[in-house]
Description:
Largest sheet: 10 strands, mixed
CATH superfamily of the largest domain: Enolase-like C-terminal domain
Bound molecules: (2S,3R,4R)-2,3,4,5-tetrahydroxy-N-oxo-pentanamide, cobalt (II) ion
Radius of gyration: 20 Å
CATH topology of the largest domain: TIM Barrel
Distance between the termini: 45 Å
Number of domains: 2
Strand content: 15-25%
CATH architecture of the largest domain: Alpha-Beta Barrel
Order of helices and strands: EEEHHHEHEEEHEHEHEHEHEHEHEEHEEE
Amino acid sequence: MKIVDAKVIICSPGRNFVTLKVTTEDGIYGLGDATLNGRELAVASYLTEHVLPLLIGRDARRIEDIWQYLYKGAYWRRGPVTMASIAAVDTVLWDIKAKSLNTPLYQLLGGASREAVLVYGHASGAGVEETVKAVAHYLELGYKAIRAQSGIPGLASTYGVGRGGMYYEPAEKDAPPENIWSSEQYLNFVPGLFARLRKEFGDDIPLLHDAHHRLTPIEAARLGKSLEPFHLFWLEDPTPAELQESFRLIRRHTTTPLAVGEVFNSIFDCQQLIQEQLIDYIRTTVVHAGGISHLRKIANLAEIYQVRTGAHGATDMSPVCMAAALHFDLSVHNFGIQEYMHHSAETDTVFPHSYSFEDGLMHPGETPGLGVDINESLAAKYPYQRAYLPINRKLDGTMHSW
Ligand code: EZ4
Ligand code: CO
């Protein structure tokens, strides 16, 4: 099954997406997401200039061999641009293989391990009471697990608070927005938010929170400890994770479950975190961590250590990635939860898909392959627009993690 055509489609139906489309000699095509928010064209160029010429003529059925060919063959290993490019090729090839066998992809990954996939949504507000209302709204929509983020009095902006409505997208056109940060104000504020949410909604609804890489290990330990009475489902990205051993310090102090990994791109980024049981959920996702093939290896390592999956699913994962994530989630034994934010209506029409949301659960559907397509003529009506994620500074102007 020779590959005869491969191209990159860049579109911006509300936000930028990079999509790989590969066609085989018998007319079957597959899709893969290659979106790297804020650095989209680097991946597009890596694919177009360096990878696509190598794919033409290759047998699309040899998924693992092509993965290793691109990984080992580049000599320069890992990194978000390389791994997103390999991920896109890997996703395309799984889509093609499943379509050629006329089966939804999850059937090739061991079949369904559960009836459907538990997802969590993002509730946020400018302050505590607005966040309470947002959580209530998500409950009305049927969500069974909810992430809560709130603006902090005295700080002009913080991570995770939308600009109204359901569609949160932090990237902005032309130049990165500048946020201001105070760990002290944040640490004083967050326990009160969760006390209020538990008072309003009781103990049973799983609540999550994302600290977005902003704390030192000892600050993260304090936050985890102070949130223990409100038993979070997880505390996400409590501290930057380049230094994996720093999680030992957090672990020593708190039983709040920890989730990490949305910015990781390989199994080597989380090997110590998993093997020392320093985290509870691994958040690597298809597009940013080498595709379905590599994500399964991470999940298999994690399974041994009772670490579960909790894949990143913000709106910068295109519907192609979301579909791939759902096939992975449905099949992998140690699935934990899947993040899910609604894409804009424009995005959904550019990428028609068979996955569905009902009653807080999602299912990839029974369409052969990933179950997602791209309307190329419609995509062409939304040209790429340069956009950047925000940057973050402390009150005194020092650059901080966003
Ligand atoms: O900031 O996807 O848990 N979700 C997140 C996301 C990330 C964005 C970055 O592009 O942290 O909102
Ligand atoms: Co996050």
